[in-house]
Amino acid sequence: MTDISGFDAGPLPELRQVLKKWVFVNNDYVRRWDGYDAPWWYTERASVSTVAAAAWLAKGIALEEYTTRKTRNINRSRSVISDRGRCDLFISVKDRHRKDRDLTVEAKICWPSLTSGAFRKRIKDGLVSACNDARLTHPYGARRAGLLIVSPTIPKSQNERLEELIGEFVAFIRLQSGCAVAWTFPSAVRKLRSDQRPRLYPGTAILLRPLRRSPSSVS
CA Rg, the chain, in Å? Predict the structure, then answer.
């Protein structure tokens, strides 16, 4: 059984090294715990921290859970009401021309079952939700993006189909339009040594969809 991992920067070529390092960060964590622990077994915040770590390793910068302006609602006169809130992640990297490329990112996480016909809808809905949150966050000149962290699961009884299901999952996320994607399924975790888990959690993926720029996003 071999590791299954890869990435496709798609519309965000400046994040190529970040995606590559993100695969490394997750795999290195698993190796250090000898397959007994993985970042995607925890909360959204834990998985966002792996993206931030990847940005630093790619010689960029990152900041998590910082205070910023958020659009809370729209009143009866249709004017936007802003308030203080938190943004999940800020990333800044250099592109191939050595120019700064900044992203203001809002994240969501989901654990879809790959044996359910609804897993594709859960991923699409999760991306929409992350992008909607990103639209409510003041960008301060950065480009905004929605980040979906996916930790797919299967019942232990379906272990013999694991690689087949992983292949179908990877093929699906690579087809999502306008997304940078990365995935990793380390073989050590796919052995699933924890008897307390009724399902397999064989790996993780991220989908990062940038929003279209608008005139208001440059202020």
Answer: 18
pTM: 0.90
- Tally of domains within the chain: 1
Name the band, by pLDDT with cuts 50, 70 and 90, for residue 33. very high
Residue 50 scores a pLDDT above 70 = yes
Q: Does some domain include residue 83?
A: yes
Q: Write the CB contacts of 188 (distance below 8 Å, at least 6 apart in sequence).
A: 30, 31, 34, 35
Q: Is 217 inside a domain boundary?
A: no
Domain that holds residue 132: 4-211
**CB 95, CB 13: distance < 8 Å:** yes
CA distance 93 to 112: 31
